[in-house]
Structures are given as structure tokens and as C-alpha cells.
Amino acid sequence: MLVLLAAPAHAAPADLTATEVSFVGNGGVVLHGTVLALASATERRPAMVMMEGAGNRGRQELRPEAEAFARHGIVTLIYDKRTVGYSLLHRDYSVLADDALAGLRLLRSRADVDPARLGLWALSEGAFAAPLAANRSADVKFLITVGAVGTTPGAQTAWGYGEYLRHAGVSGSLPHMLQTTAVRMTIGAGIFPEADFDPVPAWEHVRQPVLAQWGELDREALPRESGQIIREALERGGNTHYTIRFVPGVRHNLNLTANGGFDRLHSLSPDFGDYETSWIDRPARALPGTSADPVPAQDLPAPTLAPLAWYESPWLQLVALLLFLVGFAGYPLAAATRRIRGRHSTSPVRRSARWLAATGLMTTMGSLMYVFFMVATAANVIGPMVVGRPIPWLVLQLLAVATVVTTAATALSWRRHRRDLAHADQVRLGLLITAGLLFLPWAAYWGLLVP
């Protein structure tokens, strides 16, 4: 039995019913959701499964949209995305497609649903999986997407970083580092799941009527480029039942915006759902071509992400960080150990060496944390800036310069006084200076020494 649980309607506005349900997705995973419908409905209605975007925010993320569609007479299913087999480091769009089809079968079994008007509504990442689902089941009679991406997730992410950084006024090496170096490194390290997924083949095989929508102020999904790519894919597959629509004045998820699409407001326009309802009820289901709404501007295309060269290997990066840790942190730890044992160094190189150890350790560890922070926040949290650079990045660049200077000073001092140094000091300084020399190309690669 597909439906495992059906609870009485509750927690819904007076004009709607909300039925809690559970159903079995891919691999036997039980998924929980809510079906929203008009309380006064007396005839079979159109219905759709709503697929959320990236992350796992739960069914409440799409609750306002689902209620709006339900008030238009569309039965909607929203559900909590799986946590088994879906995480920050692992996901499979094919699995998500099967989950959506399981929800579709649940809707099809309802007495108030018209099977001839049953479809999928997919937002952002959900629009990677929705065409796969449409290709697998004749139960999908239509497909509506919001903020669908026509490029790979990796290219889309890099493009989105650039949009947010330019909007914040960031210049210098940080945009290139995040858009190119950081994205390519996360892909190469295997911590960017589905980064190279190509959505075009799935779109080429979609035969159902398609309503593909983007907000005019979408700063995440390359709306102009994605619209063109998806249109061409549908036409190559012989599908002329599509409508490409750009919605004025709204952002990525068709919510209103007070900051040109760069904010995260949750506010729907008063007419939300009007167009979709009319489109579903239209006999032809689509008008081939693009809506009359203005096509969004797109200053830059999606970046090309070349594979990592041998010297960019994540393993080599890890080895470099370990050497930095041994060289920069090892020097003060060894000195502290000597002091505990009552041995005090009189090395003439110790002052510059201490500065090198401090600046090198702060720069490498600080850079690692800052890159992870920017990736985790999708470059949305910039903070105060000085001369076109976020203060943390500017501080890291200044520390990188200081590390190079102290490396040179320590190496010169070591050369001048090497005959006066004990063997243990020679070894410690050798590791420290080696770390400092290796730091130079590493810092240049990550943009720390680039203006």
C-alpha cells in the first residue's frame, strides 16, 4: 500500500484542507508530506507534486506557494525531502526524481484529483530532477519549473558567486578565487555532489507540456542563458508545447524582492498562481515561444570550469596544508617544549622566525576557514569592505605579504648565523623556512598575493 498514513485535515486556513500523508520513495525510504486542497471542492481537480530547491528545509518552505495554488483549485503535495541519501556531500537527482513520482502516485489515488491534469512543479535544484521524472512516467501530464538551470550545477554556482560579489562591490582577486579556484577544487575533491550533472539530455526527452519560469531578478539560475538552453533542448527533442516565461519584479523563487533579487524575503505577489492555473486549464497547455515579459539582462555567461591540473590536486593541497601545519606550528611548539624543560634558545634568528610562524599559521588556517565560510554561505555574507575587499580577505592578504617578507628575513638571518646554530635549531628553522617558501606559490594560487 503506497499511502502509509493519512491523518485528518488540520492546521489549514478555513478555506483549505491539509491532510498529512506518508509514502514510500526510492529505496524504501518513507517520506512525509501534506496534501492541500480546497475545502469546498466537489469535483476532480488538477494536482501537482511540489519539489523544493537545494537543501532540506522541510515542507513548510513551500507551504505559502502550495496554499496559493490550492486556493486556485489545484491539489498540491508538499513533502520533506529525504535525509537518507541526500546531504551536503551526497545527492542523486535520479533518486529525487523517483521520490517525486512516488508522491505523484499518491495524488493519483485521491478521489478529488483528475489524473489527466496531474503534474510536477519544481524549484531550482528540484528542476534538475523533475525532467528525469517526467521522462519516466506517463502519469506526468505537465511540468512547471521555477528557476531551472540549463548549465551544470558547478557552473551555476560559480556564476551565482560572481553575481553576489559584484553586487556587493567586491573587486580584486576574491571573485576569481571563489568562482574558479574554490569551485573547481570542491569538484575535484568530490565534495560538490552532482557538480557536473548536465540537465540538457533530460530536457531533450521531455514530451509533456512545459511551463518554464524565471524571475526577472533571478541572481542564481542564469535566467537568460538557462531559458535559451532549455528552449533549444525542447525543440531538438521535438517538443513544441512549451512556454518560456520571465516574471517581472521577482527573484529566483518568484517571491518579491526589496533588493534587486539579492535578498531572501518570503513574500508572494497578490496574483501568484493566476498564470499557472490558467496555463494548466488551457486546452493546448502551452504557447510555443517566450512570454511577452522582458528577458532578463545577463552581463556575463556561465564560466567554463576546466578540470584540475596535476599541481592543483586536492591531495597536493592537503599535503601542503600539513607541511604548513608542521612548519609554522611546529616551531613555536618546539620552543614551548624547550622552555618547559628549562632550556632557553639564544638563537639570533628567533625573532624573525617567530613572526614567520605566527603570520604563516594565521594566513593558512584563516584562509582555509574563510574559503569554507564563503562557500557555505554561497558568497551571500560579505560584511564591511575596504578598497573593494571584505575586511577578512584584506587582512588575509596583508598577512600573506607579511609571511613572504618574514620568510625572506628568516632565510637571510639563518644564512648569516647558520654556523652559530645548534643542530636542533637548524632542523626547526629548516622546516619553517621550507614551509615559508612553499607558501609563496600556494598563496599566489589562492589569490592571496594577487591585488
Automatic annotation (TrEMBL):
| Record-annotated membrane-spanning stretches | 315-334, 355-379, 391-414, 426-448
Q: Which keywords accompany this UniProt record?
A: Membrane, Transmembrane, Transmembrane helix
Question: Care to name a GO molecular-function term for this sequence?
Answer: carboxylic ester hydrolase activity
Domain of life from the UniProt record: Bacteria
Q: What is the protein name given in its UniProt record? A: Alpha/beta hydrolase
| Originating organism | Streptosporangium album
